[in-house]
Design a protein that fits this description.
CATH class of the largest domain in chain A: Alpha Beta
Structural class of chain A: alpha/beta
Number of domains of chain A: 2
CATH superfamily of the largest domain in chain A: Aldolase class I
Radius of gyration of chain A: 23 Å
Strand content of chain A: 15-25%
Shape of chain A: elongated
Distance between the termini of chain A: 49 Å
Number of strands of chain A: 14
CATH topology of the largest domain in chain A: TIM Barrel
Oligomer: homotetramer
Helix content of chain A: 25-40%
Largest interface: A-B, 48 and 49 residues
Strand order of the largest sheet of chain A: 13-12-11-10-9-8-7-14
Largest sheet of chain A: 8 strands, parallel
C-alpha cells in the first residue's frame, strides 16, 4: 500500500499516517521528494485493506500494492488446478466442451439437446432449471421438475450435469441432483449465495459479472474458496460496454489475465456473450486459440420455439460441426480435446 | 414490436413472421419499401416479448416498441406514489433526508450517527447490519445484533429504520425489526430476493445496480410490485464507467428519467456514488436542484475508525450544515423539506 | 512512481530497475516486505513518465504518483483563473450563461437565437459554423458564411461569439472572427488542433471527450497551455456509458473534480449531454447547485425545422424562463449571475 | 424509421408526423394498437435521418430502421473488397501480418524492426513518424525525417510502408512517401482528416475509435469512401471499458460484425488493445481463429529503450515465432497466409 501525501502535507500529517499503520502492526516507510512524500507499506495488505487512511488530513490517495485475492491467486499457488465434474475434468491439460440447453423446457427438448451435446463431444451437460430473467413476465425455469429432467438426461447420456442455482436456500436440493453448480452473471456478487455454494463442496462454475472487473471476479471466487471449496471453474461471458450490436463484449484478454492471476481453470461462454448464433462459432474458435480451458455452448433443436435465449442457440447439426472443428483445432494447437473418463 | 426484414427477404419469410405472431394472437402489419419490409405489431408487447422472432430466416432485427414495465410505469398510472416509512413519507411533494451510518459498528457509534441524522433534519435513519463486501476479508456487518442496535437508535431518536437485506432467507427477521428494507446495488438483479421483499409488504428502497440500465432498474422494481407491494423507493447511486477518479458516476439524468418513466419516488445516494467526502455536499445540492425526492447520506462521528466506507462519510457537523443548506435550497426552489409526521 | 516487483523478483532485477531510474537522474528507494519489494521514486514524474520500466524482468506493475498535468494543475497554481471572452468573464466569482443555436442555419434563425440568448441573460453567444457530424450525409455547417452571420449577430446583440473550429488550418480565419474558439468532444484529442488553438492566443472552450477521463481532458488542456495560452474554459458535456435512454451521461462529479484538480473555470453543457429538451432545465439547475462556473444551452426558435440537434434545443421562451430561474437560484446560493461588462 | 407515438397521442399529433414525412417525399404508414400508434416509414432513410421528428408533440421515440452507411455497407455490395498496399494485398482470401515499430526512433532501430517484420513473414511495414500522445511532454515522433527513415526501410526490405497521419495538412507530404495511410484511434472522428485521406486516393487503414460503436466506425469509413476512395482497411484495436487490467478490451465480436456489415477487410491490432506483451500472441491467434483478415503487431529490438509503447512490443525472436505459428494455424484453418506479390 502506498499512501500518497498532498503537496504541502505537514510532518504531523505524515506522522499520523505512520501511526495509523503501526497501530495494526505495519511498518511504514516514508519516502520524501521535493514536492511531496509517500508512505509505503510493503507486506500483508489484508491488515491494511480496510484502514481508512484516505480520511486522514494531508492524504491525497491510497494506492494498493499486491493482490486482494489469496486462495485463488496464482502468485502463491503456481500449479494450475483441475476441477473434476462427475467423470469429466476441466483444466489446462485439455480443452473441454460444455453444452446443453439454455433452459430445460420439456423432457423431450432437454433430451434432444443433451444427445446433441454428447454427439458433439461435450463432456459436461449444461442446462438451467432456475432462470434469472430480467422480466418477471418471462419464463423463469421449471424449478425442481427441471432438475429431475436433467437427472434423466444424465442417465440417458452419461454426461455429468451442471446447473444454475439462484438462491442460497436452493443450494441443498440443487446440489443433491447436480454434479456442478453454476453461479450466473447477475449473482456473481451475491455473497450469501457464493458462501453457500462454497459450503456445499460441489464444483462451482462461476460466471464473471457482466460488469465485474477481473479483480472482483476473483474476489467472488475467493468467497467460495474461503469455505474450503477450491473446485471452482471461472467462466468469462462478456462484459457490458457501450456497443449495442452485440449483447455483451467478450473479453478474451480478461480470460487470459484470469488464467495468469489465478490457478483456476477458465472457460468461455460465447453464446451468452454475443447473444447471436452467427457469432458463437468464430468466438468459440477464438477462445480455444487464445488458450481457454473450455467453452460452454447453448444448443436447442428448435430455437424458434425456445422459451429462453433462442437467438443464440446452435442447432444440433451446427454443434456437431463446431465440436469436430474444435477437436481438430485443439489438436493442431497441441492441446487435446477433453474426453469423458471412467 | 417491429420486425425488420433483411434486404431481399422473401415473401415466404415475411409470411413466417406473420404466422408466428398470429399464433399468439397478434395482428401483424407488413409495411414494404423499395429495399426492405418490416412487420409491425402494435399492442400488448408482453405476449410477444419472448417470441424468438429473430431466429426466423430473413429477419434482421427485432425492435421493441412500448415499455416492458407495467405496474411501476407512469404511462398507465400518472399520479406519483408516495411511500410511507414509519412516521416519514417519501414522495414528490417534499424533499427527504435519509441519513445514518454506512454500517452499524458499535452501539455508541450507531447512536452518535443516528443523533447526528436527527439533528440534521433527517426523517429516516439508514444503517447496515448486513454488508455485502467485495472482499470476504472485510467487515461483513454485525448481523442480528446490528439490527437490535438499530432498534435502540429508533427508540432513542424516533426515526424509522431503513436497513439492507442481502439474502431471501433473512427477509423475515430483518423485516421484523426494520421500517423499510434496502436492496443494495449488487443485489439489484437478485430476483429471488426482490420477490421475497415484495412478499414482505414492507417499504423497499431499491438501489440501481451500478451497471443496470434504467429499464433494468425498473424491471427489478416490477419484480417487487408484482408481489403486490408498490411501496418502492428507487435510489440512484452511480453507475460504473471508465472514469477512475470517482468510484462511480452519479447519473442525475437517469434519476430524472426514472421519475418520468415511473410513478415511484426516486432518491439519490451521493455518498456511495462518489466515494469521496468532498463530493457529497455539492452532489446532494445538485440532486435537489435536479428534482430528486430525497438524498441518502452516510455519517460517522469518527470516519478514521470506520470499518466500512469511512472516506465518504460526513462528520456530524458537516451533516448538520448540509441539512440546513438543503432545507434552505428546497424552500428557495419551492419545495418543502420533509418533516417527521405523527 | 512506484515500481511494484513480482513476488520472487531477484536482487539483480531490483537493481536493474534502480539503474534505469538513476540513468535519468532519479533517486530510487527500495522498500522490501516479506513477499515482495517496491522501488519508489518521488519527484518529478515527467522524466520517468516514458521510462519503459514495465518491460524489465521481475516488474509486475508501475504505478504513477503525482499528476501528469502541470500548467493547468491547481496543485502549483492555487488561485482560480478567470477567462475573458470579449466583454464577458467566465470564472468562479460568478455563474455564466452561454447560449445560442447549435448550428447557424440562416441569418434569420441565428439572429432569433442570439436575441433569445441575450434576452435570457446570456453573456456569450454560442453557434456553430463548422459542424462535425457522425454522418457525411448530415448538414455540415455553413462554413465561412456562417462565421459572417455570427459576426452580424454580435453586432446586433453586443454578445461576444464563441464558435467551434474543427481543423488546424481553419484556426486562423475562424479566430479572425470569433471571440473564443470551441474544441468539440470528437476533437478533444486532436493534438494538432489543440496546439494550433493554443498558438492563436484566443480563449478556448475545451469540451471533454465523451470518452476521456478527467486526466486526459486536463492533458488536452495542457497541450493548449503549453503554447502559452492559459485562456482555457473546460466544458463537461457527458460521457459515454451503457445507458441508452440518454445520449450521454452528464458527469457532474467530474466537473467538480476538474475544478479541484485545475485552476481553470469549468462549465457544463446539459443540452448535448442529455440530447433531450426535457432534461436540459433540471440538469442546468443541478450544474449550478453543484458549483459549475456556467452552463451552455442550445436555443432554436423552431426546433422542428432545425438542421442539427433539434430535439435538445430550448425554445426562446423556455430559455428566458430558465435564465430567470438560474439567476434567482444563483443568488440564493450566494453566487451572482455573470453580467456583460463594458 | 418508426415513429412511436405516446400513449394518448391525438389524431392531430399523428397527422403532424405524417405531414413532416410527406413533406420530404416519404410515405408514412400508421399502425394503431389499443394503447398506442406508430408511424412507419420504409425506404431511403437518408432523407429522414435528420428530420427532427422527435420534437413533435405526442412523439415518444424515433427508431431507425436500416443502416446509415451505404458505400461501405455489405447489404448492397456483397462481394468482399481486397485492398492493395504496394505489392501486398489485404482481403478475405488470405491472412496478413503487418508489423513494425510503434514509432520510428532512429534509422538503426527502425531498420532492425523492419527486418524483424520481414523475417517473420510480414507483407506490410507499419511505423509511426507522427505520434499522437496523451501528454505533450511525451515523444511526438520524428516527423518528416521519420518518413525518410521509413522509405529507407522499404528500400532495404521491399515491404510497403503504412504510416499514421494526424492532421489534414500533413496528408499530402505523408502520402508522397507512404504506401498506405493510417488513421489512429483518437482521430477516428476527425472528419476533416478523413475526408482529406479520402481525397488522397491512397489506401487507408482506419482504426476504430476506442469509444466508437461499430456503426460510428463504419460511418467514419463512409467519410473516406464518399471521396471516391474505397481502399479502406478497418482495424479493430480495443474499446474503452471499466476493466483496468488491460489497456482496452479487444472486441473480436465487433471485428466479425464489421466484416458482416461491410465489404471492407478488417484486421486486428492486439498490441495496442492489450498494451501488454504477454497478451499479444494469444490475442493474435484468437483474431486469426475468429476470421480476421490480418493482424498488426509492434516489434522493437530493445523495448526497454523504446520511446513509445515499449511494454507492448514483441522482440524480433518473439515475432518470428508468432509469424510461424500464425502461418501454421492459418493453414490448419484452411486460409493461406498472405505473401508478398510482385
Amino acid at each position: 500500500m502506498v499512501v500518497v501525501m498532498k503537496v504541502g502535507a505537514t510532518p504531523q500529517e505524515i506522522e499520523a499516517v505512520e501511526q495509523m499503520v503501526r497501530k495494526v502492526g505495519g511498518a511504514p516507510h516514508v519516502v520524501s521528494g521535493v514536492l511531496r512524500s509517500i508512505v509505503a507499506l510493503v507486506g500483508d495488505d489484508e491488515r491494511f485493506l480496510d484502514l481508512p487512511l484516505s480520511t486522514l488530513p494531508g492524504v491525497e490517495t491510497v494506492q494498493r500494492i499486491g493482490k486482494p485475492y489469496k486462495l485463488v491467486a496464482r502468485e502463491l499457488h503456481q500449479a494450475p488446478t483441475s476441477v473434476r465434474v462427475g467423470n469429466a475434468t476441466i483444466g489446462r491439460e485439455s480443452f473441454a466442451l460444455i453444452a446443453g440447453p439454455c433452459a430445460v423446457e420439456t423432457p423431450r427438448q432437454a433430451l434432444a439437446a443433451a444427445e446433441a451435446a454428447k454427439a458433439a463431444g461435450a463432456t459436461i451437460l449444461r442446462g438451467g432449471a432456475y432462470k434469472p430473467r430480467t422480466s418477471p413476465y418471462s419464463f423463469q425455469g421449471l424449478g425442481k421438475p427441471g432438475l429431475e429432467i436433467l437427472a434423466d438426461c444424465r442417465e440417458a447420456t452419461g454426461l455429468p450435469v451442471m446447473t444454475e442455482v439462484i438462491e442460497a436456500r436452493d443450494v441443498e436440493h440443487v446440489a443433491a441432483v447436480a454434479d456442478a453448480l453454476q453461479i450466473g452473471t447477475r449473482n456473481s456478487q451475491n455473497y450469501a449465495l457464493l458462501s453457500e455454494v462454497g459450503r456445499s463442496g460441489k464444483p462451482v462454475l462461476l460466471k464473471r459479472g457482466f460488469s465485474s472487473t477481473i479483480e472482483e471476479w476473483l474476489m467472488s471466487a475467493e468467497y467460495i474458496a474461503r469455505e474450503g471449496n477450491a473446485n471452482i471453474i471461472l467462466c468469462e461471458r462478456g462484459i457490458r460496454t457501450f456497443e449495442p450490436m452485440t449483447r455483451n463484449t467478450l473479453d478474451l484478454a480478461g480470460m487470459i489475465v484470469a488464467q495468469n492471476e489465478s490457478h483456476l481453470p477458465v472457460v468461455v461462454d460465447p453464446s451468452h456473450a454475443a447473444g447471436r448464433r452467427d457469432l458463437v462459432e468464430p468466438l468459440a474458435r477464438a477462445a480455444l486459440a487464445a488458450g481457454a480451458d473450455g467453452v460452454m455452448i447453448d444448443v436447442h433443436d428448435n430455437p424458434s420455439e425456445a422459451l429462453c435465449d433462442g437467438p443464440q442457440a446452435l442447432l444440433p447439426d451446427d454443434l456437431a460441426r463446431l465440436g469436430a472443428e474444435l477437436a481438430k483445432l485443439a489438436q493442431d494447437l497441441g492441446r487435446p480435446m477433453a474426453l469423458p473418463e471412467s
